[in-house]
Amino acid sequence: MIRLVYSNRTEELLAELAARVRAQQARDGALVPVRVVVPNTSVEDYVRQGVAREAGIAANLDTSLLTRFVAEVACPPDARVADAEALESMALALLLDDALLAEPDLAPVRAYLRAAGDAAGAVDVRRVQLAGRLGRIFEEYTYSRAEMLVSWRRGTTMDGKHAETERWQRRLWLGIFGEDGIAPARSPRVVPLPDAVEALEPRPGAPRTVHVFGFAHVARTCSRPARPQSASGAGSRVSTSSQKPSQGVSA
Predict the structure, then answer these.
(1) Is 30:59 a contact under the CB 8 Å cutoff?
(2) Domain limits of the chain?
């Protein structure tokens, strides 16, 4: 069951959250962690202080960012969901492969790596910088551009001025997650978030109640794991407090 509460006054949302936290602890006992999902660390601090002020103490609150929560819920038992750090590491492995970089689609990447000269040190610095940037970009794609990533298995999706950028990004993505990519060979294997979400099934041990606080919107890929995920589906609750109705998370 999903309960949605929204208001233009954050303090009212916080008071409602505190009341629900107290009710959950009265029902389940103080030793059962209360799972609260927040958009950032500033909201996390605000929630902890507000619950403590309303309830007298903020005990056994298990707060997490949405990205970590989704990765935990969606992660297959024998795999790891790719985050920015894992994507950066695998992108760097590809950028160190000179045979791969010689491919026509990667000509813009070669030009960037050698823009500061052909000295090995200068090229390696740019490899690391580009890998870091790709890790963050690819992670963002897994949240908000899942349809594009699926389409990349069949070909490119853009024309015009963005076509060249898409070609080299697609080639590196397939070098990570394609049929001969390096992600499946890692131990544990690494899977992109959209694939993990697509294969998501209710599982035992999922939190009975999850409070989602302070989101004006939720990335489409993240909306499904934010729904009830108990093994039976019975008695599972998601309580969402938002400043306006959130796309993908509604009653």
Answers:
(1) yes
(2) 2-76+199-242, 79-195
Q: Which residue has the higher pLDDT, 222 or 101?
A: 101
* Tokens coding 70: 């989704």
In order of 18, 21, 160, 226, 237, the CA distances from 251 in angstroms are 21, 20, 41, 12, 11
Report the distance separating Cα 216 and Cα 37, nearest Å.
13
What confidence category does residue 91 fall into, taking pLDDT thresholds of 50, 70 and 90?
Answer: very high
Please state which of the four CATH numbers 3.30.200.20, 1.10.10.160, 3.40.50.150, 2.40.50.140 is assigned to the domain occupying 79-195. Answer: 1.10.10.160
Q: What is the pLDDT of residues 199-229, one digit of tens each?
A: 877 666 667 788 989 887 777 777 766 554 4
Question: Is the confidence at residue 85, as pLDDT, over 70?
Answer: yes
Taking a C-beta distance cutoff of 8 angstroms, is the pair 82, 143 a contact? no
Q: How is domain 2-76+199-242 classified at the CATH fold level?
A: Rossmann fold (3.40.50)
Angle value at C-alpha 201, between 207 and 80, nearest 5 degrees:
80
Contacts of 49 (CB under 8 A, 6+ apart): 58
Distances (CA, A) of 5 to 51, 82, 206: 17, 32, 23
| Three-state DSSP class for residue 241 | strand
Residue 28, both tokens? 């389940």
Q: Residue 198: what are its φ and ψ, rounded to 5°?
A: -60, -35
What integer best gives the mean pLDDT of the chain? 85
